[in-house]
Amino acid sequence: MIKFFLMVNKQGQTRLSKYYEHVDINKRTLLETEVIKSCLSRSNEQCSFIEYKDFKLIYRQYAALFIVVGVNDTENEMAIYEFIHNFVEVLDEYFSRVSELDVSFFNTVFHSTWQAHSSPYQESIDELPKICSALEPQQACFSPDSSFKGAASTTPIY
Amino acid sequence: MVAPSLKLQDLIEEIRGAKTQAQEREVIQKECAHIRASFRDGDPVHRHRQLAKLLYVHMLGYPAHFGQMECLKLIASSRFTDKRVGYLGAMLLLDERHDAHLLITNSIKNDLSQGIQPVQGLALCTLSTMGSAEMCRDLAPEVEKLLLQPSPYVRKKAILTAVHMIRKVPELSSVFLPPCVHLLHERHHGILLGTITLIMELCERSPAALRHFRKVVPQLVHILRTLVTTGYSTEHSISGVSDPFLQVQILRLLRILGRNHEESSETMNDLLAQVATNTDTSRNAGNAVLFETVLTIMDIHSAAGLRVLAVNILGRFLLNSDRNIRYVALTSLLRLVQSDHSAVQRHRPTVVDCLQETDASLSRRALELSLALVNSSNVRAMMQELQAFLESCPPDLRADCASGILLAAERFAPTKRWHIDTILHVLTTAGTHVRDDAVANLTQLIGGAQELHAYSVHRLYNALAEDISQQPLVQVAAWCIGEYGDLLLEGNCEEIEPLQVDEEEVLALLEKVLQSHMSLPATRGYALTALMKLSTRLQGDNNRIRQVVSIYRSCLDVELQQRAVEYDTLFRKYDHMRAAILEKMPLVERDGPQADEEAKESKEAAQLSEAAPAPTEPQASQLLDLLDLLDGASGDAQHPPPLDPSPGGALVYLLDLPCAPLPPAPIPDLKVFEREGVQLNLSFIRPPENPALLLITITATNSSEGDVTNFICQAAVPKSLQLQLQAPSGNTVPARGGLPITQLFRILNPNKAPLRLKLRLTYNHFHQSVQEIFEVNNLPVESWQ
């Protein structure tokens, strides 16, 4: 079972964090710094699976961003490794060449449509963009008193 | 009046613009104050924006609990934008420990029944993330209804919500069990994936559900087969493998269903073989599927050929250049090594190569696996590799490596001298990392090996002369020099170069140890006692020793002071007793914990051999057919009896087994077989507590010039007796009197029937394979009466 999913950059700033088991808020920052420290200290030749306390960490580096998934013992590490890549490909589709900037600004979009904790492989490559784009027209017709009008499909709402 | 509030984008820009942590905190605190004010004022228009900013700040690690009530208000609003942020806030900020979470139950219920997909989706998402037990119980019927809706988007989410509910409230399994079988027939991958996860949860929680779902194994097999054999499907394929995630989940479910269940396992065998051979392994996705297949094969009752295939796949993984794959291969081989030991042995060279890895996790795994693979036939080669590794390994692995080497050396040492050498080498390389009892073990070992006293003391003296910093080494060396100082000074030892050692040098060395600041108090104690013992062993006068001893009479360390005072008194007043007191020590008995450990080890060995009856059974039945059993043809194979079910009882029998030196056997040994220097002897023991039990130890020795390899001994007895063979100590007997193979037979003879024994031996000798079948004559009467 996935315990947490983090996207942290090399300086240690968290761009996205999703916890599937309750962790106290002050412990979260601690956890994130420790995790990123152990990922940063590994070179390119070392393998992507680390044992950390009672989790297994599976990480992948994309440019300056580390995506780290913490799982318990029963998961297939290589399938999670593939899942991380799948996720990045989905983001790539949605944002057309995603960058760290996109992730920082639009993380709320993922949160509200993502239900990955129990079945991590739920989103196939095309599904998330379909869902996200399905949302925008729905909003326009659903709430007649919505304050925005005619939003383009990729404009953020806020 | 109120300044227009920042949009989320702008807030993020500001935070990114902050150069230091303090600046960032300032910006955030200011913004939080604004947000709090806005919540107090109750502005409905911008509420969602404020909450979005608050959630971002929360993600960065700042407290955001004051936003909880706002989430509720936003969820209750009718605008989608509000609901979206409200639900998001609920997922992140509310959880079971705050009572406020129950308040959203009603809103969720309304939203679930409204029929607008995105809203239903949001509600289901939130429920599955933070739903507590009460909420789940209340909302279960709604979710169940949604399982049957036509739209796959909502159904998927409903299934995943059901998974969460079952985790929280296992009693709801009865609600969600019926739709599962129906859902398996869907074609939509998302629904299938969710259903399989749901079934896994149900099976894990109740054995009744497990039995129920065994029926769907054929269905699952069919789905997986279609996945594997259909070609490229644009929606779901990743680097050529069609939906690897679904494949992996199906394999995992098959593993759960097939565990301990013959029938299901058989249905899956073909499919597993097919997946294993057809998956493309050039990319990671294929390797992930293959790995899951291997795990499944290992866990179910698979055919022997399939297990060998699994081990070979793992061996292939080991040779792959990608480190991730090697890591998973090493982890799985470690799990396999107990049950398929011989298959894993074939990959030993590759495993040993992995020890050289620079990656810490890989080398740790390789070390564990190598230690597990050591057995009596490869112990010398493996120890060399492991010792080389010990010299170069990172410090955190040293302790494990050192203790592993010592343990393996204890179990499999071919000769005492080799054992002493190995321990010595470990102590010199990694002395500070060994366990505390290593010193005691080594002294006891040396004490017991009388012929090696001279050799050990010479070696230890040399080692000590080079380096006095490794404490365990220094302690052992000091003890040895004290005990066997006379042998050291004689200077002739045929096994190493003769070294002329002067008395003065020895004393100087011991004094150096005493004075060095690196020595622990315990070490000093050893050195002082050694000096004292030397006073009787050496020929010269004892002035120097007396001097040293009297210096330490005023030492600050109480222990040393006491020793020094006592020794000094010995010199002055009791000189006539000195020689007697300082005689050579007798062999120290191995005490309690050691015997328990050995008993535990033999019990584990017996349990392993209980697992081994599965392979020995077919052997035994073939053997019996071959041998045309003694009192008439036997139709049915003889099943070795399981060990006494109560572990206490088994332990009683095993403690009777000779772990320590054998008590003299009242029944004489019997030589039963001799051919070209290979001899087989039987020795009998009748434990007094159990008159029906007979223990026979067969010993195979080799006095010829060629090695005996692949030695296997099988036995048959009349039907009224029960025979159990335990695992042999090895299957190789080196030439010219090398370490013999021993194997234990247990025969239960409750009716005191006459004992007859037929043996079948197969081995390779002088490059020929030999097979001998014979009945043992002249069995002593005392063995069965």
TrEMBL record, chain A:
Annotated compartments: Endomembrane system
Keyword list, A-Z: Membrane, Protein transport, Transport
GO BP, sorted A to Z: protein transport
Domain AP complex mu/sigma subunit intervals: 1-107
Superkingdom of this protein's organism: Eukaryota
Cellular component, GO annotation: cytoplasm; endomembrane system
Major site of localization recorded for this protein: membrane
Pfam family, one: Clat_adaptor_s
InterPro entries, alphabetized: AP_complex_ssu, AP_mu_sigma_su, Longin-like_dom_sf
Membrane topology: Peripheral membrane protein
Ranges in coiled-coil conformation: none
Functional note: Component of the adaptor protein complex 4 (AP-4). Adaptor protein complexes are vesicle coat components involved both in vesicle formation and cargo selection. They control the vesicular transport of proteins in different trafficking pathways. AP-4 forms a non clathrin-associated coat on vesicles departing the trans-Golgi network (TGN) and may be involved in the targeting of proteins from the trans-Golgi network (TGN) to the endosomal-lysosomal system.
Family: Belongs to the adaptor complexes small subunit family.
Complex and partners: Adaptor protein complex 4 (AP-4) is a heterotetramer composed of two large adaptins (epsilon-type subunit AP4E1 and beta-type subunit AP4B1), a medium adaptin (mu-type subunit AP4M1) and a small adaptin (sigma-type AP4S1).
Identification of the protein by name: AP-4 complex subunit sigma-1
Biological source species: Colobus angolensis palliatus
TrEMBL record, chain B:
GO BP: any one term: intracellular protein transport
Topological type in the membrane: Peripheral membrane protein
Region annotation (Disordered) ranges: 588-617
SUPFAM superfamilies referenced in this protein's UniProt entry, alphabetically: ARM repeat (SSF48371), Clathrin adaptor appendage domain (SSF49348)
Domain GAE residue range list: 665-780
Keywords of this entry: Cytoplasmic vesicle, Golgi apparatus, Membrane, Protein transport, Transport
Pfam families the record matches: Adaptin_N (PF01602), Alpha_adaptinC2 (PF02883)
GO CC annotations, alphabetized: AP-1 adaptor complex
Top-level taxon in the UniProt lineage: Eukaryota
InterPro entries from the UniProt entry: Adaptor_Complx_Large_Subunit, AP1_complex_gsu, ARM-like, ARM-type_fold, Clathrin/coatomer_adapt-like_N, Clathrin_a/b/g-adaptin_app_Ig, Clathrin_app_Ig-like_sf, GAE_dom
Compartments where found: Cytoplasmic vesicle membrane; Endomembrane system; Golgi apparatus
Keyword field contains Protein transport: yes
SMART domains per record: Alpha_adaptinC2
KW Cell membrane (keyword) present: no
Alphabetized PANTHER family for the sequence: ADAPTIN, ALPHA/GAMMA/EPSILON
Membership in a protein family: Belongs to the adaptor complexes large subunit family.
Protein name per Swiss-Prot or TrEMBL: AP-1 complex subunit gamma
Organism per entry: Colobus angolensis palliatus
Source species taxonomy: Eukaryota, Metazoa, Chordata, Craniata, Vertebrata
